């Protein structure tokens, strides 16, 4: 009897031990609170009676069972508790299963966060699974209320639900429909556009940059190209928020941060510039691929320190709105900064010296382009500063040679007052040039030859700075600049004129500003009114038609004279020039012509000739002498008597040549006065012409 009891106890213990070892596995190994879907228990089962199951303390339902599989189901939604539930199958050791609960989701950039209760899955694997693409992505534990997974293109669907699967069993835990917003992987700026790369970028509704619309130019599922407003390129902002929205209702808006360097300011010298930059890590780039663009030529850069870029200008560099780029991919140049106005320092190499009456000024130099490259904006404003105030002027013209030398032409006021020309650049620099007119020489006092004397020179543009004065090749001593128009100096009076011409007087200041005028002459005993003094002879050498000891009288000119009949006194008219009623005397063949009278225009003389000079024949010409003031004397052999057998035409009034002309004693034709015509000078000249009779 004792042996039988011992055997019974052994069998009971053995059966109990076999039950402990016969554990089962729950499919899925993660349960979702609130779902009443069947749960599968797998293992080796042996039931003597109908099995029962409990979820915690609440009875559950046995849907079916076999020796290898038991399918159970919670009786109500409260059966599965958080963060875990203990499943008790009759005759087997209870097992505790982690539970989760999902309330919603949130998309942050390329990650999808499930919101709910996920505190029990730290060591479990929950995977997002796409029905369409058969792709599984792990949902990583983030904290007690969320897990997250990376959104990949294959898992996105706007119609099919996303399944969440227990990785260890491959069984679905729950499913839900998730609307994925645009996935932005990269934001790239080019010269004038923003390029957004990623996926799920269509159907696109809008792109905003810092809440301002970016006009969409091109759009596909993986790339968007848009044009931001103009201020985007110039704002000194290092970080922008880029919002991308789809047309799908309720789909999330994707917001990403775009970072860029900021060109803050620059300092330019004559051949280069240092540019201050912020929010830029040069270590992320290859220096040889970095350039400043926006000028006519791209400029390679170097970094003196991490926040300073150095560039060297080409000779033909202009002023322009520049920005930093990376040219690693020549087909996709990336903008790395905002735009900033960069200007080389203007260099003036030569300023012209205008004459008083020129009205123009020439300036040459480098980096003087008047416009900002690529725009119609003016780089310079030009001003004239005078004692009376400042005024704006405009360029007349500009040209450039191949080596980058500009020539600027300005309209300027007439001299002689100097002024300041200012060139004010929009780049913040300015250049001023003092403009002096070339000195002019108006007069110089005379000296006697070989007698050193002080001379006074008048003109314009004089100033007291390294003044030198030469008269001929003789340098004046003791130069004193009295004011802007007068100076004095000691002249040796030892220079002889060439060909009795006036001697050059030159005045220079600083060996830059030079004036020259052939104006100096010596004094003779007689003043040389219209001539120059020949110092060695002490006589005046007259100019042109001037004659006399002082060159003060014009020499009379005799062109023609009317005729009389021999023995018949008559009035004659002498035509010519430079006649004057100053002690006027006329003689024909030595016979005084009485009552001479010069016309007011000095071009004719009338006088009474006795016609008493005997000639051998009618073709013998007599001398005609005209004397003015007994100084200006002219004589021409020009007078002829009227031939007795011939005469000039007589007009209807009975006068030779109708009294309106002179008889040509050689041809016996009438030389009509002005405003008269015809053979006998009887017809007024009304502006037409007469055709001589055939």
TrEMBL record:
Alphabetical keyword list: Disulfide bond, EGF-like domain, Glycoprotein, Signal
PROSITE patterns hit by this protein: EGF_1, EGF_3
Residue pairs linked by disulfide bridges in the UniProt entry: 542-551
InterPro entries for the chain: Dictyostelium_Tiger (IPR052014), EGF (IPR000742), Ig-like_fold (IPR013783), Ig_E-set (IPR014756), IPT_dom (IPR002909)
Matching SUPFAM superfamilies: E set domains
UniProt-listed Pfam families: TIG (PF01833)
Domain EGF-like: 520-552
Signal peptide: 1-22
Record has DNA-binding as a keyword: no
Protein name, UniProt field: EGF-like domain-containing protein
Taxonomic lineage from the root: Eukaryota, Amoebozoa, Evosea, Eumycetozoa, Dictyostelia
């Amino acid at each position: 009897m004792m042996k039988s009891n011992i055997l019974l106890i052994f069998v009971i213990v053995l059966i109990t031990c076999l039950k402990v070892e016969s554990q089962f596995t729950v499919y899925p190994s993660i349960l979702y609170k609130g779902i009443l879907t069947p749960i599968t228990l797998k293992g080796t089962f042996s039931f003597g009676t109908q099995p029962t199951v409990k979820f915690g303390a609440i009875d559950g339902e046995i849907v079916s069972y076999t020796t290898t599989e038991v399918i159970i189901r919670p009786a109500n939604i409260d059966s599965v508790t958080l963060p875990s539930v203990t499943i008790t199958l009759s005759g087997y050791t209870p097992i505790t299963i982690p539970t989760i609960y999902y309330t919603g989701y949130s998309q942050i950039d390329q990650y999808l966060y499930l919101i709910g209760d996920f505190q029990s899955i730290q060591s479990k694997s929950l995977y997002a699974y796409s029905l369409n693409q058969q792709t599984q992505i792990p949902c990583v534990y983030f904290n007690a209320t969320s897990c997250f997974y990376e959104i990949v293109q294959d898992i996105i669907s706007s119609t099919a639900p996303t399944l969440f699967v227990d990785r260890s069993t491959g069984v679905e835990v729950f499913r839900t429909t998730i609307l994925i917003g645009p996935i932005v992987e990269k934001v790239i700026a080019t010269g004038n556009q923003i390029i957004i790369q990623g996926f799920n970028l269509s159907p696109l509704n809008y792109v905003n940059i810092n809440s301002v619309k970016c006009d969409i130019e091109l759009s596909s599922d993986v790339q968007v190209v848009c044009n931001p407003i103009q201020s985007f390129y110039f704002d000194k902002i290092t970080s922008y928020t880029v919002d991308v929205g789809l047309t799908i209702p309720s789909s999330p808006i994707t917001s990403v941060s775009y970072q860029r360097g900021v060109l803050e300011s620059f300092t330019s010298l004559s051949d280069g510039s240092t540019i201050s930059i912020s929010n830029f890590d040069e270590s992320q780039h290859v220096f040889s691929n970095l350039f400043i663009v926006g000028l006519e030529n791209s400029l390679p850069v170097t970094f003196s320190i991490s926040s300073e870029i150095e560039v060297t200008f080409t000779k033909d560099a202009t002023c322009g709105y520049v920005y930093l780029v990376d040219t690693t991919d020549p087909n996709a140049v990336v903008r790395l900064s905002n735009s900033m106005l960069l200007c080389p320092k203007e260099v003036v190499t030569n300023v012209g010296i205008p004459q008083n009456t020129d009205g123009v000024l020439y300036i040459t130099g480098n980096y003087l382009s008047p416009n900002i490259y690529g725009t119609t904006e003016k780089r310079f404003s030009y001003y004239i500063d005078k004692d009376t105030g400042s005024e704006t002027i405009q360029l007349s013209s500009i040209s450039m040679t191949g080596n980058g030398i500009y020539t600027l032409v300005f309209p300027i006021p007439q001299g002689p007052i100097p002024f300041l020309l200012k060139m004010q650049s929009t780049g913040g620099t300015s250049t001023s040039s003092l403009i002096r007119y070339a000195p002019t020489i108006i007069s110089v006092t005379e000296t006697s030859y070989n007698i050193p004397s002080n001379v006074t020179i008048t003109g314009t543009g004089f100033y007291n700075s390294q003044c030198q004065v030469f008269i001929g090749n003789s340098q004046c001593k003791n130069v004193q600049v009295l004011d802007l128009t007068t100076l004095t100096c000691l002249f040796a009076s030892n220079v002889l004129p060439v060909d009795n011409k006036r001697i050059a007087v030159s005045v220079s200041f600083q060996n830059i500003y030079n004036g020259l005028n052939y104006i100096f002459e010596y004094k003779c005993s007689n003043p040389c009114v219209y001539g120059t003094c020949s110092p060695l002879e002490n006589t005046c050498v007259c100019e042109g038609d001037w004659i006399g000891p002082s060159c003060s009288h014009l020499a009379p000119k005799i062109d023609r004279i009317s005729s009389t009949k021999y023995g018949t006194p008559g009035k004659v008219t002498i035509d010519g020039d430079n006649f004057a009623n100053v002690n006027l005397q006329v003689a024909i063949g030595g016979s005084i012509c009485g009552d001479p009278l010069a016309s007011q225009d000095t071009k004719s003389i009338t006088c009474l000739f006795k016609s008493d000079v005997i000639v051998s024949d009618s073709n013998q010409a007599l001398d005609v002498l005209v004397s003015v003031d007994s100084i200006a004397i002219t004589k021409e052999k020009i007078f002829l008597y009227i031939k007795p057998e011939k005469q000039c035409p007589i007009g209807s009034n009975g006068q030779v040549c109708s009294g309106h002309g002179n008889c040509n004693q050689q041809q016996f034709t009438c030389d009509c006065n002005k405003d008269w015509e015809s053979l006998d000078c009887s017809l007024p000249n009304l502006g037409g012409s007469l055709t001589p009779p055939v």
